[in-house]
UniProtKB/TrEMBL annotation:
Source organism phylogeny: Eukaryota, Fungi, Fungi incertae sedis, Mucoromycota, Mucoromycotina
The protein, known as: hydroxyacylglutathione hydrolase
MF annotations from Gene Ontology: hydroxyacylglutathione hydrolase activity; metal ion binding
EC id: 3.1.2.6
Cofactors demanded by this protein: Zn(2+)
Origin superkingdom: Eukaryota
Length: 258
């Protein structure tokens, strides 16, 4: 499989996912359709699907224009996947872990309700190469997580440790925003002696695009995936990992004000 990150708006990511065997393509959260269609035309791939992670306008807002352009071009309609009725143009409702195909690629939607109640992450496996990727929208970022707009810390803990953390360590993570430097800056205030964190901070300084990372990498420096570590628990003065997660999220919410 081939994955092309597309920077959009101020700090968003859309992605083009291509099955190199069949040249079938999907776009994930296509916020700037013209830019995306221009890139797809250069690849020779055929766009068939839209994978929408959640209904927020900066992820789903491009669906209407993209579907409209395909209708006007008299090409076959696009399959718009998601799990929230608030997603524009949705016509395929994803059930949790109900697999489907993009060409020869195996796609597994993972329901991850917290940032929004209908949030979905899309786990992709290429059977030919065993390469794995997950599109995490606003659930998991490089060195961070999304805000709990329609859920709470217990919901996010379940997602992080019973869904995402169960994926193989070599799974590539493609998130919905370029928040890496801000996330790492916050993480360094929590674990300043973490060598993996220090190395990631040094690495990202001259990188305009910092995706992807991997599940295994995130376990080493993402504080929200480290709430079971005693060092993190000592920072917030709590031992219950759900309470630690809640405290860290509150600290991150206020971090920009510091």
């Amino acid at each position: 499989m081939k994955i092309i990150p597309i920077q959009a708006l101020e700090n968003n990511y859309s992605y083009i996912l291509i099955d190199e065997k069949t040249k079938e393509a999907a776009v994930i959260d296509p916020m700037e359709p013209i830019k995306i269609l221009n890139v797809i035309s250069q690849t020779g791939a055929k766009l068939s699907s839209v994978f929408t992670t959640h209904h927020h306008w900066d992820h789903a807002g491009g669906n209407i224009e993209l579907v409209g352009k395909y209708f006007l071009s008299k090409k076959p309609g696009l399959a718009v996947y998601g799990a929230d009725a608030r997603i524009p143009e949705i016509n395929y409702v994803c059930k949790d872990r109900e697999e489907f195909k993009l060409g020869s690629l195996d796609i597994t939607p993972l329901h991850t309700p917290c940032h929004t109640k209908g949030h979905v992450c899309y786990y992709v496996v290429d059977p030919a190469t065993n390469e794995k990727a997950v599109f995490t929208g606003d659930t998991l970022f490089v060195a961070g997580i999304g805000k709990f707009f329609e859920g709470d810390a217990r919901d996010m803990y379940r997602i992080l440790f019973h869904v995402i953390n169960k994926l193989p360590d070599d799974t590539w993570i493609y998130c919905g925003h370029e928040y890496t430097r801000d996330n790492l800056k916050f993480a360094l205030t929590i674990e300043p002696q973490n060598e993996a964190l220090q190395a990631k901070w040094a690495w990202c300084q001259d990188k305009p695009i910092t995706v992807p990372s991997t599940i295994g990498q995130e376990k080493m420096y993402n504080p929200f995936l480290r709430v079971n570590e005693q060092s993190l628990q000592m920072v917030v003065g709590k031992s219950d990992p759900v309470e630690v997660l809640h405290s860290l999220r509150e600290m991150k919410n206020n971090f920009r004000l510091m």
